[in-house]
Amino acid sequence: MGKKRILSGMRPTGKLHLGHYVGALENWINLQEEYNNYHLIADYHVLTTNLDTSEIKTNTIEMVIDWLAAGLNPEKSPIFRQSKIKEHTELFLLFSMLITKARLERNPTVKEQVRSLNIENITFGHLGYPVLQSADILLYKGDAVPVGEDQVPHVEIAREIARKFNNQYGKVFPEPEALLTKFARLPGLDGNAKMSKSLNNTILLSDKPETVVQKLRKAVTDPQKIRKNDPGRPEVCLVFTYQKRFNPEETSEIETGCRSGALGCVECKLKCSAKINEFLQPIIDKRAYYESRLSEVQDILADGEARASETAKATMDEVHKAMRFG
Ligand code: TRP
Predict the structure, then answer these.
(1) Which domains, from first to last, does the chain contain?
(2) Which secondary-structure segment (H or E) carries 98?
(3) pTM for this one?
């Protein structure tokens, strides 16, 4: 038995932030040794909520640079665009026959998107995006998919489709498992539960040290801690969540200091930005390397796409045989 396979994917929406790192990328990097990883750039998936493709190229390149800068190793694990491997669309078509419209309408993540984006009439493609995602995963026979909580319903759909296909045509696909990230969520600087580009509450992996200091200075803390010596409640403070993640050695001291009032928010935030900057520095250095070697980034994609394509073709051969398309 060879190593198990992982398929991980992300939509290219530009530069990545710490929430992406903590919620996904870090997990991908750690899994590189243990599994064979495939890293998908879900560029077609962007269309489900945004038809404007004017920035798709830059957003893709920025994301790939962040992936590489954070430590994905393209020699071990191919990095490729969904739009460059035609088999995704083909498998998507076949899979769309194996799932009902009612089942897709029950998907809580899609429902939530419809609600939050105020979509009145969902497109066929948007409703079906978990089917495209299933094709993404199963084309590479992914055994596992590292995702956040919100993507679990899609992985469940991939399992159902794999089961249905295998029962109908004979076993071709594994039933992929969701690998949940330990530290799934990092709150935004405004106190929102999630860091998100659209909420403008992020720290980017590419932010300069002084930007991080400025951003944290403005971060929301415990609203009851108004003056330096007021006692604070670390459990409601997003900066404390950042401390736990980026400054674990000092957490208990910070917690005591905050609760007693001895530690003020200004000082706490400075400690926190220093730690975040320490963490980001190697990423920023590596980013600078790739920014000045864009053709190397293009080569990495071309190489990843050639390798992904081989796997995708082999799976589609099996699919065609199983379905007797010859
Ligand atoms: N749907 C995912 C998102 O919105 C992106 C994605 C597309 C994906 N294909 C995938 C994630 C396959 C994991 C596996 O973020």
Answers:
(1) 5-186+294-322 (3.40.50.620), 207-287 (1.10.240.10)
(2) none
(3) 0.95
